[in-house]
């Protein structure tokens, strides 16, 4: 599990932490990232917009998992 310990010049320093639930650690990581980048979860104006973003994400994941991008 990973916690953000601090940041220097906008770069987060990660530290391994044992003994906590994975969900709590992921939530802390997301909260720290949201604070670091002054951002929140995106909102969609319509279901169609959300479907388009989901489709683009799926295609990007499919392309990124292709053989061309595998490490040798």
Automatic annotation (TrEMBL):
Alphabetically, the GO molecular function entries are: hydrolase activity; metal ion binding
Q: Which GO terms describe its biological process?
A: defense response to virus
> Pfam families attached here?
Cas3_HD (PF18019)
Q: Which UniProt keywords apply?
A: Antiviral defense, Hydrolase, Metal-binding
The superkingdom listed in its UniProt entry is Bacteria
- Outline the extent of the HD Cas3-type domain: 23-67
The protein depicted here goes by the name CRISPR-associated Cas3 family helicase
